[in-house]
Amino acid sequence: MGQTARAKKQILALNAFPADGGAALADDVAALVARRRKSFGATSVLFYEAPLHIVGAKGADIFTADGRTYLDLYNNVPSVGHCHPKVVEAVARQMGRYNTHTRYLFDEVHDYAERLLAHFPAPLTNVAFTCTGSESNDLALRLIRGATGGMGIVVTDTAYHGNTTAVTEVSPSSYKTGAPPAHVRTVPPPHPRHYGADVGKGFAAAITAAAKAMADEGIPFAGLLVDTIFSSDGVYADPPGFLSAAFDAVRALGGLVIADEVQPGFARTGTHMWGFARHGVVPDVVTMGKPMGNGFPMGGVVTRPELLTRFANEFGYFNTFGGNPVASAAGLAVLDAIAEDGLMENARAVGAHIVGRLDAARGRCAALGEVRGAGLYLGVEIVAREDGAPDPAAASALINRLRDKGILIGAAGPLGHVLKVRPPLCLTLEQADRFADAMEDILSA
Amino acid sequence: MGQTARAKKQILALNAFPADGGAALADDVAALVARRRKSFGATSVLFYEAPLHIVGAKGADIFTADGRTYLDLYNNVPSVGHCHPKVVEAVARQMGRYNTHTRYLFDEVHDYAERLLAHFPAPLTNVAFTCTGSESNDLALRLIRGATGGMGIVVTDTAYHGNTTAVTEVSPSSYKTGAPPAHVRTVPPPHPRHYGADVGKGFAAAITAAAKAMADEGIPFAGLLVDTIFSSDGVYADPPGFLSAAFDAVRALGGLVIADEVQPGFARTGTHMWGFARHGVVPDVVTMGKPMGNGFPMGGVVTRPELLTRFANEFGYFNTFGGNPVASAAGLAVLDAIAEDGLMENARAVGAHIVGRLDAARGRCAALGEVRGAGLYLGVEIVAREDGAPDPAAASALINRLRDKGILIGAAGPLGHVLKVRPPLCLTLEQADRFADAMEDILSA
User: Fold this and answer.
1) What is the pTM of this model?
2) What are the structural domains, with CATH classification, of chain A?
3) Which residues belong to the signal peptide in this entry (chains A, B) (predicted)?
């Protein structure tokens, strides 16, 4: 628990602009920071000691007011590329035609629903559109709690699933003080250092134990909520299939599984549209958000019809903006871009290239720890040269050095020592090499 | 309670397309309905016996696939007018420039935050951007519960504040079975029929009693969450100032007040930017949604800095899409349109014209009950000719007759007998007359 408490502080502080303004700031940046503090108050969190003042973006590039161009390895929201022309055109066109809620009929909405659902295995045949990943996970929790009659949810130690009241409870990484309530239990992420060689078996056993512990305290089990790439825990993708035992364990206890695809979804992992599909499992509920509209605010919940029916018998549910015609146009353009630009294969190839480059550099870069992940969702551990221990301070310094070299990246994991590589999926081999070169330059110095 | 239970069923069923398909449908409509049922399942709720297949919209007009034009008195999301050119242009332009989350600096975001905050009285000087009214109310609940240490919330009998787990609890109108939990208590809406002549005093006393009843059961009071036009309760606007006693009562008990401006906000009530301002009160937290971006998914929470600080000390909060540059561009365009198109004054004048026309028609239309509201948020009671009792069946029939005459409108209130007039704010006097003429035609027959 001591480590978890420290972990939260690390994550929350990571890469944030300190309130006392450590760095010397350009005039335009200083002015914006001052305005921001006045309007946004305490919830104003900025990246970097000297925050970026953005004036443009394209593909995997971000342009700032000081004339610099940054290679973006952080932003997975503009997943098919910043300002992808297909998405820009689709949103602009539909904004000018009509944009009303979905209690009327529109062609685009149903075209999109069908195109999206075609990417899901049976029996996941219904979709409910929302506006954010948070709303998606909030609805998903209602679905599985209603169906099981249980409140108890198991998540990973450093999980983040969103920002509503209910979803914050299942997001231990959001707690600066205190901890989630008794109906939420955490388990370590799936890695041999926690579970030994058979990660799947160990992870499943931990989930079973957590669920039983809740049940023993009179809290019936609802199920498992899991980001299928474990992004905020530090990125855990291998071996494909390890999630299968966990799904079986949940179901053996009468629970249901929500796969949170906000991070891995929409082809990012390079071989499958969804993170869960890499593991050969079928969740009961799948939630989507960030990359779904390439920045247009939209999310969704895909599930079995009976779960939705059960819920709809108890509650009225309508999402005013959810699946509106402009969101649908954006969503269709994203699906088109993934297919037409070959982004899944690009994610696989470029991600593998980065892993290869970093693995090859390890001999010259003692601070380079484990490199893991899938496609263009990678975790790169930064460790102490002496003993290989996690080194969050070095990771933070590295992030700022990379920024000086024109590369934007973030970190994850309970201690914040895992670089999180999740660029727009259009990242080129040349751009990937630029990142690998910069890593080598800095870490071999 | 019997009435409340019936009320919920009425509201939820109101105007919905029945699952067994009562009406004969055009081929395109039938095909879309079939596709919709397959994709959306149980959460697919459509308006009208024969749903509308929309292919365009402009100003207060909606165009359908069968070549008809409908006058839209229902949709308050496209508040400055369907497809307002300023909003369309702003979104299209910004989509093509950049659209990233707000942990970087952007000019537009801070221009918008300041322009928006300029419409609020001290000490409401901080804003947190969200994507929906639901997210706004969810965050607002967290703010006041954290600050007071209480869970207890008072809302009105037929309140609707959104769709997250926490916000559904404070939305009695969303319950098809059961009722909100013990930490949510309801009071009748502010009308003489519930409280006698001094509505403000009676409403305040009811809130005090509800809060004390919770406290007696060991549930400390957090505060009042109130839609300042009481839209889903049936629209209650007068006399201006009646909310003052309620705010005082809440504060006397150590509670805080959330003003939900999703419905009345952004100039709709004709004389003020916000519903609370009509009452001369200052809430602790103000929440916004629907009309904020004219259909672009965005919401916001405006509050006192200390409430946000207290919250941010306990929880990390970030909203990925909230206040992004495109949302900010849309929000700025909406504020411009309200000012440049004179929409507040238009709402006042056209709303008053409708009230005048309906009041004048009452002698010839026995089913016309009380007409109330402010600006372009009006409630029109439909009553039985014989005894003036609420007549939801007549309201439902009227809504469908109006639709036949090319006018779209909805209903509200616990029984669903209150027509809800909330068109885009650009509604013209000529369009208002068309509505009044149609009402007279139908109701005097």
Assistant:
1) 0.96
2) 2-80+342-443 (3.90.1150.10), 85-340 (3.40.640.10)
3) none
